[in-house]
Every structure is written in C-alpha cells, then in structure tokens.
Amino acid sequence: MTPERIITNPLLEIRLKGTQAQMGAQYGEIMAAQGGYEKLMDFYPQMAQSLIVSGMPRRVRKGPMRRVAGELINWAVNSMVKGRLPEYEARAQAMARAANLSPEMTRHMLVMDVFQNSIGVLGKLGAVQVAGKPLVHALGACTSAVVFGPLSADGELMHARNFDFPGVGVWDKSPTIVYCNPDHGIPYGYLGARGADVPGITAFNAEGLTVTFHTRFHKDVDFQSTGVIDLGHEIIRNSRTIEDAINIVSRHKVASTWGIMVTSAREKNAALIETTAKKMRVTWAKNGRHAQTNHYLHSDMVPGEIATSNGWTSYTVDRLRLIENFFRETEAMGGATLTDMQNLLGADFEVDAPGKSRMMGSLIGYVMSVQSVVFKLQSGIISLSVGEAPTGWGPYINHDVNWSGDALKTVDVAKEKLSAVTAHYAAGEGREAYRHFQRGYLLDHECAPLDDVRREIALAAAAAREDGSLRFVQGALALEARDNEAAFSHFMQAVSLEESPYRKAQALLWASRAAAATGRSSEAALLRKEIFTLSHHNLAEFKQLAGRDANQLITKRNYADLVLSMSMLDAA
What we know:
nine-stranded mixed beta sheet; alpha+beta; Penicillin V Acylase, Chain A; 16 helices; 2 domains; single chain; about 575 residues; six-stranded antiparallel beta sheet
C-alpha cells in the first residue's frame, strides 16, 4: 500500500557538540534558520491550561476557569524551574536566545511534570473526582514493548515506543533526530520535534542504551525536585549500563511520577524504573520481554496511585494486556520481527475485540500517538515513523545510527524507502473518515462549539458505519446537546456493534440513561439488567452506577454538563 500520510516538513538530522550551553545555542541557530517550529511554540503555553480544564463541562472551560488554571500552571512551572539542573537550564536559555524566543518559552517544556503533579495534588485533597465525575481527564499516555532473545526473531533487542501527547498536528508534523556529543559524558541522541529540545524523553546513546518515559499518577509529588527532561538527560548522558541508570535515578529526588524503560542492546536486557517523589522501584525483564503502559507494575508503588476515572483504568490495563497477547503470539511464531514491532505500535483494536479496527478506546495506535519508534541498536537502526498521528501506523524510515557527519542534514522522506501502511483507517475512504474524527477531536480539545464537533463526528461515522466508538461519541455529544432521542439511537447502535465486554457495558449504561431520559423506563431497566450478565476486570463501576440509576426516584433528563474524553473513550 502506498503511503499517503507522510509528514510535509523534511526530517531533520541534527548534530550538536560542546558544553550543554553551546549545544543549546547550536540547536537554536538551526531552528531559527530552518523554521517550522512556530506552531509548537504557540502550542506549549496553552496546552497545560487545556489539560487542566479538560474534565470540566464545556460551558466553563473558557473564561474565568481557564484564567485560574493558567495562574495555577504559572505558579507550578515557576516552582519546577527552581529544581532544574543548572547546566540544562543554561542549555534551554541558550537555545531560546539563539532561536529569538522569549526566555519564558523554555519553562513550558516542563508541562507534563506540572500536569501529573497537579493530579497528584488533587489526589491528596480527595478532589480527583467531584460528585462521581472526574475533575481532570488524564491525557498523555505512551506504550513501550521490549523483546530480545527467544521473543526476537533474530535474537536482537528491540524497544518499540509510542510517545502519546496532546500535540496532535504539531509534534507529529516535524520530527527530529538529534545527536549530542558533550564535552563531558557519553555521546547520546534523542527523538524530538522542531523546537522541542527535550533530551531524555525518548533517547539512545553510544553504549547501546535506550530510555523512554511514561506517565503515571500518584499522590507523592514534589514541585521543586528534578523534572523529567533533566532526569532523562542525566540518565542517557551518563549511563553505560542499566545499573548505571538505576543508580542515577536513585541519587535524584524526582519531582513527578514516571515509568522509565531502560534497555541495553549490549547487555540484552531491560528494566523498568518507577518513581514518585518519595520512592523508586525497579522491575526487570523476564524471558526476553518487558512492557509498560501507564500504571505502576511494582506492588510497592501501588498504594497512593491515582486513576482519574474508571475509563483510565481500562485504557492503561487493557493496552498492557494487548501487549502480553502479542508476546505470547510472537513467541509461538518464533519471535517478533521489526515489522511486527511496528505493527504493534499501530494496533487499532482492543484486546477483547481483536482484529476489529476502531478510532477510540484502549488502543496502542490512537489519535494522540505523535511519535513512534523501534530501536534496534545492535544493528544500528532507529526505525522512526514519518507519518502523521497516529504515528504508530507509519510509514517508518530505517535510520542508520551515525555519530559523525554534518551539523544538519534534511531528509526528504518521500524519496526514502518507507515501510507499508496497513492500518484500516490509514488509506482510502477510511482515511477520510479518520480525518473527520481527528478534526472533531481537535475541535473538542480546543473547546469549540458543540455543533462543530458533532458535525465532524457525524461525517466520520457516516463513512465508518461499523465503528462502535464513533456511535458512542455521537450519543454522548447528543446528550450534551439535550438531543436525547438521537442519543438513544446512537447508543443502541453502539451496543449492537461493540464486542468487548467493557465497551458493551459502557454503551449499555449510557443507552439506559438515554432511554430513561426519553421516557422508556422499562427499556432502560432491561438495558441495565444486561450489564450484570457481562464479565470483565473493570465492570464493577458500571454495575454500581446501573444499580444506582435503578433506584433513582426522578430520572435525570438533562446531561448538558456531560464531559466526554475522546482520547480514552470515557464519559461522565
């Protein structure tokens, strides 16, 4: 299948050398000359506010609440800046000066620490949910899967990673591969986007190590300790072994709540380092495999962990279940190939409904995947997606690791050998349907008028009639618009289409609510009863809510304050 969705800007291959400040200045000069980073600079200052208000009803996401959120974010960012390591702060400021950016811009690169810590504070206060509704929708996720030995077709270690981030249409448009040759430390590189000098988030070094960071939520946070960018930078610049990386993390007080996957092509091993501001634990690979999504795997880290909603639990746990299925299947076939790892990053189905493509749900390859890569460093290969979001669908370019060469190389990816794109929604009529969905998703994230969001989702659904996730979203948006009859129709279509017990129960719950809101009380009761016949690890809340709804004396008819999360496919 011919790739139709490759990036429009050339891939930048950048080489920096010297002190951290010198490398920052070199990066800034290249950005100033190349351009293409302006949208990212506009995006970052607004992103944190959007994340904080994402769980609020549409009518209050703008105006005073957004300003309050902005003030809180500014306080938190100012606190985080105090914990920055001096040489990395010097790098950031040198980059800003050379790129003719305001020095204030560099502060906003700390946004994910701030967002995760904000949820941690809400968790301490018991305010993650108010009246049973999430106050904040968890966004940003990421998936990593590692295979080696018996799980790898040629025995080599491969580390596949999706970077999931709200920067759809920004991060995915202008990827970069940046090599750093520091005056002190090991030569290292990282994957970023134009304007995002973020060493350590998705990184590799000359000793064959890779490092990837993943979101967690926990009550133990600190706004004045080491942030993710500096911590990752320290690891990849100074670690020759996985044990080195573990020791580096143990020496720092970490500001936020992370899962850090560290792999070594030379050692053929992997370890997951999980952090809060108070503790750190390590889980090692077993039998040639390791993986993480966004919940703590070490039992010592679970007390105090936060799930912003029931939907978040399925979103992270079921993606990990999907990877575990992948491990079992590839082991039976003799191990995973590079193509298998690429396809895993683009998986557009849920673990309980394999093979049925969908746009939303507990997916590995989903709308917020803005950078996807498979590291195969023993062979010196970085297989990087050069497709638009979801980047996990590809196409991928195989970049040969090269620690020498020109300071800047621009790669016209259209002229390079690219992998095939096989995702259902990546081409033809499916691609057009996905474009409408993506526009609807972005409009919703930007808090556009409800009618505009509904229009795009309706166009997507008309071209993807078998996708239950779109029907559910149509139903939720209809309830928000007080169009209860349409909501009932959409939810019933979702019920008929969904095969996963979790998604069917979710659709049944909201169909029963729409039925009750339209006066179909007996039908609502039958729909609620069907929920109790289903089995899944995460159905307890749906059954509890169905029981509560059954005992209501007055049926709720106004759902204008319903809050929908398209990224997780959740509603409350």
